[in-house]
Amino acid sequence: MTAYGFLAPFALVFAGLFFFPIGYAVYTSLFRQEFNGLGFGGSTLKFVGLSSYVTVFTTPDFYHGVLRLLGFGAAVVPLMLGLAIVLALLLDSRLAVLKRLFRAVYILPYTVPGVIAALLWGFLYQPGLSPIDSATRAMGFGEVNLVGVDLILPSIGNIMIWAGAGFNMLIVYAALQAIPASVVEAARMDGAGEIAIALRIKLPMVVPAVVMTGLFTIIGTLQLFNEPVILADISNAIGTGFTPNMMAYNAAYGNNDEPLAAAISVSLALITFVLSFGFLRLTARAAGLSAPPEAS
Fold it and tell me: In the chain, which ranges are continuous DSSP H helix?
């Protein structure tokens, strides 16, 4: 009972902030708001079962948004993880200097709120004001519209990598610090160089940390919202259905259709769960961590 007493505060807060919202979203998605008196007589909830989910999965914008995120994540996730691993290995190298300073510099962008980061980069991307556009013109490459149809996804990806690489680097770096020094010294005594130690000793030993950061990055990518919402004010390439989260937001606060917004959110959560589980299975198999046949 003492243990349950200590766990109770966390359990109550966790249930209130996690399980209750999920349950409420599922409950809301099974109903539909019906307005009376031409919208002036209030509204009532009518049970419609999975009707909202049928609407979601028959709406082209939802499929386009999910496919857009999948293509976006296929490029952003490897780039972000690769940059985080390289930075962590550089900091962990015995040749590195001013480690604390560079560690703070790398993590600093993560401390900037996502909305503020999108606003800052929006000024750098805005046509006519962008110093990047001025630089490309000065070098003879002509005008580059960073918020146009062709470059809007790379521009958003740049913001995410700039903000998230430092956080992932910190997790990988912490895992590197946990590697016994005797293992690294033994490799050096055997004649291994810094690159060989990084690739053959350190990197295999921090695979769990890399997998965890990869999982966080995938989930964060599928929840893409702040950056496109902010950049939508200066870009004609971003509509209300650009991502599933934007589609849910527009359904709830633009069309006052909370059941549809809940159905979109639950559908996106299920897709995120499936992709995250598949990522964990693939990485476990690639790392040789999968259970033997008799165990499964």
Answer: 2-14, 20-29, 51-57, 60-92, 99-111, 114-125, 131-138, 152-177, 181-189, 194-197, 203-205, 207-222, 226-231, 244-249, 258-286
Token digits of residue 212: 């965890």
Nearest to 265, CA basis, from 241, 249, 253: 249
Mean pLDDT of 21-37: 84
pTM, entire model: 0.83
pLDDT tens string 170-187? 999 999 999 888 888 888
**Which residues, 6+ apart, have CB-to-CB distance to 207 below 8 Å?**
283, 287
Rounded CA gap, 34 and 42, in Å? 9
> Measured between alpha carbons, how far is residue 265 from residues 70, 101, 183, 217 in Å?
17, 40, 47, 18
Q: Which of 75, 70, 74, 59 is nearest to 248 (CA)?
A: 59
**Backbone angle region of 127, left / alpha / beta, with phi > 0 → left and psi within -120 to 50 → alpha:** beta
Mean pLDDT, rounded, for 244-264: 91
Q: Count Cα neighbours of 28 within 13 Å in the Cβ-side half-sphere.
A: 17
For residues 223-237, give the mean pLDDT.
Answer: 91
Q: Tens of pLDDT along 74-92?
A: 999 999 999 999 999 999 8
